[in-house]
DNA sequence: CTAAAACCTGACGTCAACGTGAGATACAAG
DNA sequence: CTTGTATCTCACGTTGACGTCAGGTTTTAG
């Protein structure tokens, strides 16, 4: 599959895919003409990368963790980092939940007070 | 209260507080000498701002929403934006939960497989 | 064979939320 | 009064994940 196809199917930009390769997050074979040629499972990988980015992990962190995600094995250091990041995400979820509760209350209050005309 | 005190008590930097003022998120009275003088409730406000930032809202969005948060009233537009942001946060929470689940599984797998020596 | 798409590699631009001096002023302590 | 610490206003630097433009090559459609 070529880069445009992968971009469409994964929902990320062509530029982003090249960037992932630059960061060693994603490999690609090349055609004789030098164009990128991705295997089918690249799609899963891109989505995984996106999930981890969405979780606030940096590319540096992701590139360190991807190997254990694919292989299912890790050194003690890697396991430590995995749990560190997992915990960080859990905290973020707590923060977001707090913020959401605040907004929920504000919305409640506003609705209860009646919406003011422009 | 002066800016250093507010910074310590709120846990955000002096620079950040000045930035908030620049973005019209936070007001301050001034002493005759031109130094910022905050009322007690500035502390709550700073924490609210931090919560909303932590939730991924931009300063532009926060400055638009802060009035209804303080007053408890809003125009229809503001109510719409409030719910939009609330929903965005809810989605973020979903994303993070997905990412966390993935990491949880990876950690499980790694532990089950036995941690590899360095 | 040819024109249009799609792709390639640089390389500079962007944007937000500050960090980080520089140089000057204000205020508290002795 | 003087030293030291806090604060002031510019104003440029930082960082990450790309956006975007330039100039050239490859592939595909016809």
Description:
The structure is a homodimer of 118-residue chains. Chain A has 118 residues and is mainly alpha-helical. Chain A contains five helices and two strands; from the N terminus they run H-H-E-E-H-H-H. Chain A has two domains: 1-73, Multidrug-efflux Transporter Regulator, Chain: A, Domain 2 (Orthogonal Bundle); 74-118. Helices cover 69% and strands 3% of the residues of chain A. In chain A, strands 1-2 form a two-stranded antiparallel ribbon. The longest helix of chain A has 38 residues, at 76-113. Chain A starts with a helix and ends in a 5-residue tail after the last helix. The mean pLDDT of chain A is 92. The interface between A and B is large, with 44 and 43 residues. Chain A binds a DNA duplex (30 and 30 nucleotides) through residues 2-4, 13-16, 18-19, 23, 31-36, 53, 58-59.
Uncertain segments of chain A are: none
CATH topology of the largest domain in chain A, by name, is Multidrug-efflux Transporter Regulator, Chain: A, Domain 2
Chain pair with largest interface:
A-B, 44 and 43 residues
Report the principal-axis shape of chain A.
flat
Assigned CATH class of the largest domain in chain A? Mainly Alpha
The total of beta strands of chain A comes to: 2
* N-to-C CA distance of chain A: 52 Å
Largest sheet strand order of chain A: 1-2
Radius of gyration of chain A: 20 Å
Helix-and-strand structural type of chain A = mainly alpha
> Quaternary arrangement of the chains shown?
homodimer
Give the integer mean of the pLDDT values of chain A.
Answer: 92
CATH architecture call of the largest domain in chain A = Orthogonal Bundle
Number of helices of chain A: 5
* Tally of separate domains of chain A: 2
* Elements of chain A, N to C (H/E): HHEEHHH
The biggest beta sheet of chain A, please? 2 strands, antiparallel
Helix content of chain A: 55-70%
Strand content of chain A: under 5%
């Amino acid at each position: 599959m070529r880069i445009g196809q992968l971009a469409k199917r994964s929902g990320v930009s062509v530029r982003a895919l090249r960037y992932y390769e630059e960061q060693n997050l994603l490999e690609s074979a090349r055609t004789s003409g030098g164009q990128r040629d991705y295997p089918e499972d690249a799609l899963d990988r891109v989505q995984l990368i996106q999930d981890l980015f969405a979780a606030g992990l940096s590319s540096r962190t992701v590139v360190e963790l991807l190997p254990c995600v694919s292989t299912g094995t890790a050194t003690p250091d890697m396991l430590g980092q995995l749990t560190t990041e997992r915990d960080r995400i859990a905290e973020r979820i707590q923060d977001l939940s707090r913020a959401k509760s605040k907004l929920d209350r504000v919305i409640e209050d506003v609705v209860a007070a009646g919406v003011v005309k422009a």
